[in-house]
Amino acid sequence: MVLSMGRLSFMDVAMNSPTLLLSLGIVALLIWRLWRFTVRPLCIWLAGKRLYIVTSPEDNTLLNRNTTTVSFETMVVGMYRDIGISSHGVEVFFNKASVPLGKDTAAKRPLDAILEFHKRQLTPGRNEFDVLMSSKVLPCIENTMDFTRAKGGEPFVLDTTPEATTVSLLRMCEEIFIVGVPDAFLGMDWFKSNPEMWKAWLDWERVNWKVIFDLPAALTRDMVAAREQIVDSYVQYLRVPSAERSEASYFIKSLDTVMQRVDASETDTARVLLLQTWAITGNLYKVAFWAVSFMAHDQSLLESIRTEILPVVRGEKIDESYLYEKCPELKSLIVEVMRVTIASGLVRDVIAPTVVGGKTLMPGSRVLVPYRQLHLDRDAWGENAHTMDPRRFVRDAKLENSKSYLPFGSGHTLCPGRFFAKRAASYFIALLVSKYDLRLKDEGARFPRMDLATPAPGVPLPRNGDDVILVLKERPKPCK
Q1: What PROSITE patterns has UniProt attached to this entry (predicted)?
Q2: CA distances for 11 relative to 7, 213, 357, 374, angstroms
């Protein structure tokens, strides 16, 4: 199946740099014309600032190893400010080391401590990860997928008959990963019992790209309104007595402890919680949506993945840890979906002269590595680089380690949630295809179009109005 892929999304060019759409269009045209013909960093002036654009995988590797002359710190500070954290909060989070992490472990700055707790929570093999998955996330997915017994009560169920259930795939992915997974972290049905909260989050998902741009206030009112509604709800959550939040995850409890230790305000704590929730769920539900979309439009792929999964299904239980490592067809589908959809990039500030690709990058400038170009580079992926090939990584598993494959970033800022995201998406897909026979409601339905006109901090959404409507019929339960 072929997915039409543009070479460039505005996000690739403008991530974390203030500019106007006209300037973005000009930059897009420049990169379109030039990036294929050079591996040396391109240098342009954008909104009064020098911007280097790196298109070589080797140069990107050098940048990622460099922690002395290029910096991500100012980008993080900017993100904290853009999300509305107070000046006092920014000073506290980036202040001197003051948070102990345990015996024989040096104290860290509050921000670094939060990131460390986040990493511990999401690293397989650690007790924090195993408990989160087995007792919170997997039951959340299972309960949501048991919607046939809800008699149409789930918001993504469009129609129910004795024989089958018709659902919106996009809405189902939102319900599981935007409502259910955050509640699993929070330890209570906060999203699910607060409809205004998850409605605000859905609004946020469609406008949060505006956080990245320094746009006039008149153009960000919808983003600010959604953001503040979420923050207000999180403040209310933080005011719930800790005894009533005893089922919260390790990360949430650790975040609470850090914020109390440094005397952060409830509002600033709520904003950090928003950022962390966004990091966990912001791309996960879209990866799941696109993966199932491809399966629904390719029955041979669907049957191949189902055949691979069924041996580990026992009654209504699936061996989750087995799925991602031992089911190459499923793994390849998810990895390839990320290759063709990720539309973000690496951004760093140059703080001292830095040689990259034979060119000296000057202090005070910014460097950008557009991952989308690396992911669609024919030199790395062959002539079918712009084609969605779900078995690409079955034929060559080593491609996942390619320098041109960076869905979770790279270097010391590699996303700590990468294992969680892939395993949660794998479990959802495995449960769906093992529990239900699925087909398109309309066999001639058009494949959903990716919205490449709207900047996306990661994986793009489908265009407004595009969805996949599935008819699901429960399969006979396998023998225990």
Answers
A1: CYTOCHROME_P450
A2: 12, 10, 23, 14
Helices (H) and strands (E) in the chain, counts: 22, 13
Domain map of the chain by residue range? 1-67+344-388, 89-342+407-474
- Report the pLDDT value the prediction gives residue 19, as an integer from 0 to 100: 38
Q: How far apart are CA 349 and CA 388, in angstroms?
A: 33
**Whole-number Å distance between alpha carbons of 54 and 369:** 5
Rounded to whole angstroms, the Cα distance separating 221 from 236 reads: 23
Residues 6 or more apart in contact with residue 137 via CB below 8 angstroms: 181, 184, 424
Type and span of the H or E element at 183: helix 181-186
3-state helix, strand, coil in the chain (%, to 5): 55, 10, 35
User: Pick from 388, 343, 335: which is nearest to 368 by CA?
Assistant: 343
Q: In 298-377, where does DSSP find H-type helix?
A: 299-309, 320-326, 328-341, 371-375
Residue 97: band (very low, low, confident or very high) from pLDDT cuts 50, 70, 90:
low
Enumerate residues 6+ apart whose C-beta is below 8 A from 221: none
Tens of pLDDT along 437-454?
A: 999 999 889 999 999 888
Contact in structure between 50 and 365 (CB atoms under 8 Å): yes
> Does 327 appear as a known binding residue?
no
Using one digit for the tens of pLDDT, what is the confidence trace for 240-299?
998 999 999 999 999 998 888 888 999 999 999 999 999 998 899 999 999 999 999 999
How far apart CA 72 and CA 238 sit, in angstroms, is: 30
CA 326 to CA 225: how far, in whole Å? Answer: 44
Contact 110, 256 (CB under 8 A): no
Quote the CA–CA distance of 293 and 193 in Å, as a whole number: 29
List of residues 6+ apart from 389 with CB closer than 8 A: 336
